[in-house]
Amino acid sequence: MERSTEIAAAVESSVEALVAVLERARLAQQPTVPPAQLRVLTIVAENRHTNMSRLAEALDVVPSSASRLCDRLEATGMLRRVADPRDRREVRLLLTSASRRLLAGLRESRQAALAGVLERMSPAAQQDLLRALQAFEVAASPEETGHQDRQTA
User: Fold this and answer.
1) Global pTM?
2) 129 strand-pairing partners
3) Domain boundaries in the chain?
4) What is the distance between the alpha carbons of residues 70 and 78, in angstroms, rounded to a whole number?
5) What is the three-class DSSP state of 153?
6) Distance between CA 76 and CA 52 in Å, rounded?
7) Which pairs with CB-CB distance under 8 Å and at least 24 residues apart come from 42-47?
8) CATH class in words for 2-120
9) Three-state secondary structure call for residue 60
């Protein structure tokens, strides 16, 4: 148990360092987009059928808050609202070419920032990290969690 606590503290510390690296990459991007607006763009990018109610649900906010975020993004040319061709009462949210470029640039900046950190690690440490991250992902997946719960019960 104590070993698990030590490992959990080390993972938390590492995640904080990872978040700091990713945040520096985000802040270096131009234009700088606030995190909440960036989250909206990411959600819309991941699901091409996003409407206002789905967005509010994904953000865990009331629809009026989601709408205000979209207002800001639309005003800066990062988002478009169009009538859904399947249901004209619905408004579909679409990325603009500017927001697609922004997201691609951010992805490249983040990967470059991460690569810079990884290059300071030995090849063996990089391999160990890769194996550990893959094992963590498997252990954290819902299917594995349920399976492990049954094993320990």
Assistant:
1) 0.77
2) none
3) 2-120, 123-153
4) 9
5) coil
6) 18
7) 42/103, 44/79, 44/93, 44/94, 44/95, 45/95, 45/99, 45/100, 45/103
8) mainly alpha
9) coil
